[in-house]
Amino acid sequence: MDLSKYKRAFLFGCSFTTYYWPTWADLIKQEINNTHVYAKVGAGNQYIYQAIVEATLKHNINKDDLVIVMLSNVTREDRYTRNDGWITPGNLFYQDTYDEKFLKKFFCEKGYLMRDLSLIAGMDSVLKLTNTDYYFTSIVPLDSLSSDEIKMKDVDDIISLYKPVLDKIKPSVFELIFNNNWNSRLNRPKYKTHWSTGIYTDNHPTTNEHLEYLCKIFPTIKFKDTTLHMAQESTERLFNCGTYDDIIQTFKDIIIKPEDRL
To answer: Which of 14, 154, 223, 254 is the most exposed place for a label (fewest CB within 10 A)?
Structure first.
């Protein structure tokens, strides 16, 4: 992949795309200066789908552009509200926005998978019309449940129907970097936070791990020395941070600010 041929890049995702420290999106920004990031911590594929449609209309995405979409897991519930805008609490099994009553009444793993695969098919259709080079990646396999090592049951009919689209999605971060086990890489960022007691262990990829992922899914990709240095330096600085505030202060002027949404 020759990144130098693109005039602009449009990148979409959740916290694996925009986070407290540089991600794969920031690495692409090092190579393509005119880079637009549409991502939000906790976002699901509903948010991502609508962001793709908005960006396509707003920026007239075309054959000179690069689009990379990092899909989220399907067990998420995105909503746009009058007072708060986009609410994206993340994985339904690890959040406090939707209570147990909501989950018991509305959560259906097959329904969420059907919803998201239809959204991804919609993303594919929209991007195909732009004649741009576009790629789908993912944080975890789309048929993952509350534990990403547990797969959904009785969904073979849905998987079969959407196979042409699923075949376009590159192997996930969970599979390629974490070998299907979040605990497989023991040297994780650990820091004190405002939202948990004790020391928080963060399984979001380090910048070096983001670089590793890009190199695995795009074997011919070439990065400038400055980009490689940025990944190494960011990772080293991250492990020197002891608190959430340290991380924010360290990277606040480095990471890309996501685009404003409607």
So the answer is: 154
